[in-house]
């Protein structure tokens, strides 16, 4: 994984703490800082701070592990109602619009839950809403035209 600017700054903070505690000499500190800013990946950063206390805990048989600081944060869970809304919206094409209303209901409830809980799936909820409303609107227009033609005859 490529290292970000924030990853490099965290590694420099680990080096600063090691230097302040007397674990590194000034010239070694300077060499490591230059290695941190030249590093392209998180693994390279981990190697620079591996022997310092704030660095990774050594694993048996491993050269160096990636510190917890450098690991990616877990993605939020996918909202189930958003998935259901998208599925119902896509099924509108196969069910002649019967799943349009559930797509709209699930889409609106999913968007409210996503705002409240921070879950993932806003795009799926929006997809379900658009397809559901297109289905509901299409059927409403169809019935209105059918009624208008019947009244004119």
Automatic annotation (TrEMBL):
Entries under InterPro entries matching the protein? DUF1707_SHOCT-like (IPR012551), DUF4190 (IPR025241)
DUF4190 domain boundaries:
82-142
Which controlled-vocabulary keywords does the entry list?
Membrane, Transmembrane, Transmembrane helix
Pfam families linked: DUF1707, DUF4190
Q: Which residues cross the membrane?
A: 82-105, 125-149
**Residues of the DUF1707 domain:** 1-53
Which superkingdom does the taxonomy of this entry point to? Bacteria
Please indicate if the UniProt record lists Transmembrane helix as a keyword. Answer: yes
Q: What is this protein called?
A: DUF1707 and DUF4190 domain-containing protein
């Amino acid at each position: 994984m490529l290292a970000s600017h924030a990853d490099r700054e965290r590694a420099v903070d680990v080096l600063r703490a090691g230097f302040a505690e007397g674990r590194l000499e000034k010239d070694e500190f300077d060499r490591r800082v230059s290695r941190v800013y030249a590093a392209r990946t998180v693994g390279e950063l981990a190697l620079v701070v591996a022997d310092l206390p704030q660095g990774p805990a050594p694993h048996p048989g491993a050269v160096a592990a990636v510190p917890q600081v450098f690991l990616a944060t877990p993605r939020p869970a996918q909202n189930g109602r958003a998935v259901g809304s998208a599925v119902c919206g896509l099924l509108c094409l196969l069910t002649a619009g019967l799943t349009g209303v559930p797509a709209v209901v699930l889409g609106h409830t999913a968007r409210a839950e996503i705002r409240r809980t921070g879950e993932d799936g806003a795009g799926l909820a929006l997809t379900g809403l658009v397809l559901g409303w297109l289905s509901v609107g299409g059927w409403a227009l169809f019935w209105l035209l059918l009624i208008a033609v019947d009244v004119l005859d």
